[in-house]
Amino acid sequence: MLDPYELTVHTLTLRQLGDAGQLAEINGLTFADVEAGLEKAVSEGAVLAARGSYMITPAGRAFLDGVYPRAFAAPRADSAVSEAMDAFETGVNKQILSLTTDWQTVEVGGDRVPNDHGDPGYDAKIIEKLGRVHEKTAKVLRPLSAADPLVERFLERIGTALTRAEGGEIAYVSGVRVDSVHTVWFQLHEHILRLTGRERPE
To answer: Which one of 44, 86, 109, 188 is most buried, by most CB atoms within 10 A?
Structure first.
């Protein structure tokens, strides 16, 4: 698995720009560990600092490309992980993408138009479906969760976003300024692609 320094740099592949607190929320490290990792990464040219936020550099990506094969050797060699990833890509990931489209648009007269969220019943059905897919995803990704606790952390964060959406904070479905279901799902997907050494499907 990744050590704290490697994990800090890796987190900037999941969130393109972030401060130490935001990165710690994603990776579960202490704020102090993330700060120390960022300071080292900046000094080594792996990360660029800008007004309290950080972004990975090409050198940082090259560093991680050398780290991943060693850090993730065991899960990459595990057939159960490979099968789980196949099931994720062909099943729940496609369902989430479809439900996100259904959330953002509605059908009117045979055409898809932006959802103005004026129909609470329609929105509630989408959130309920997202919840069912979330439960299924936890089962599908069980081999990955067993191999890497960060996978479970992503699933918990998606659950938190769903709870807030169910409570009326609908930005937590697909909003880009909060840790919404859509935002955290993207981070989860990016993480498990790097974990398994796969490319994002077109």
So the answer is: 188
DSSP assignment letter at 180? -
DSSP state, residue 134: H
> What mean pLDDT is reported for the chain?
96
Distance separating alpha carbons of residues 35 and 37, to the nearest angstrom = 5
How far, in Å, CA of 2 to CA of 142, rounded?
A: 19
Question: What whole-number distance in Å separates Cα of residue 8 and Cα of residue 38?
Answer: 7
Residue 111 confidence (pLDDT) = 87
Which of these, 60, 52, 61, 62, lies nearest to 22 by C-alpha position? 52
* Of 55, 71, 6, 74, the residue nearest 34 (C-alpha): 6
Place of tokens 């130490």: 20
Q: Please provide the CATH number assigned to the domain covering 4-71.
A: 1.10.10.10
Centre a 10 Å sphere on the Cβ of residue 48 and count the other Cβ atoms it contains: 16
pLDDT digits (tens, 9 = 90+) for 66-104: 999 999 999 999 999 999 999 999 999 999 999 999 999
Domain limits, the chain: 4-71, 78-196
Closest C-alpha among 75, 31, 146, 22 to residue 4: 31
For 118-137, how does the pLDDT look when each residue is reduced to its tens digit (9 = 90+)? 999 999 999 999 999 999 99
Residue whose C-alpha is closest to residue 131's, from 61, 181, 62? 181
